[in-house]
Design goal:
two-stranded antiparallel ribbon, two-stranded antiparallel sheet, mainly alpha, 180 residues
Length: 180
């Protein structure tokens, strides 16, 4: 697990860490299975200098991802996510300049998984309805809707949004040319 130089092949990047972990399932989980994607994923989430990519880190991330998926399927299924969160806590300190500081107190192997689980709680506090699945029928990507009106439907307007518009246009064109 050393290939940090490979560019991130995923179509949707820049989502909060919890949703980025969910989106690592993209294209049949190809990121972690075929691209040796743990270093890529760690780098894209600003963790490359804090976490060594090991099998233990990947196992913890896969457990956290399964917990997030279980929670998305059934919001009352909180035990798996709470089990991930049980691997760490937040240590609060006060800096010399009087600034409060929160630092995760988590074993390195669990840090990315714990941060993803903690981030999901943050997103839930901001607005659970803004955590959305892409509306395209063939897309599994999840995003946090930051649009002003809260009506974003697609993971990417240039990807899934354009495909949906093109399909609608083609369908209308086809109906207009049918005899009848």
């Amino acid at each position: 697990m050393e290939n940090v130089d490979t560019p991130d092949p995923r179509p949707l990047r820049g989502e909060p860490i919890s949703l980025d972990l969910l989106n690592s399932r993209w294209h049949g989980d190809v990121l972690f299975r075929e691209y040796d994607g743990l270093p890529i994923w760690l780098a894209s989430n600003g963790l490359a200098d804090r976490v060594t990519p090991t099998d233990a880190v990947l196992d913890a991330l896969l457990e956290a991802r399964a917990a997030l998926l279980a929670l998305r399927a059934d919001p009352t299924d909180t035990a798996p996510l709470n089990a991930v969160l049980a691997h760490g806590s937040v240590r609060r300190t006060l800096a010399a300049d009087g600034t409060p500081h929160d630092e995760p107190d988590v074993p390195e192997a669990w840090l990315p998984a714990w941060l993803a689980a903690d981030d999901y709680l943050r997103l839930l506090a901001l607005g659970p309805a803004r955590i959305r699945e892409c509306a395209h029928e063939n897309c599994i990507l999840t995003f946090f809707d930051t649009s002003q009106n809260g009506r974003r439907r697609w993971c990417s307007m240039s990807g899934c949004g354009n495909r949906a518009k093109a399909a609608r246009h083609y369908s209308h064109q086809k109906q207009d040319t049918l005899p009848g």
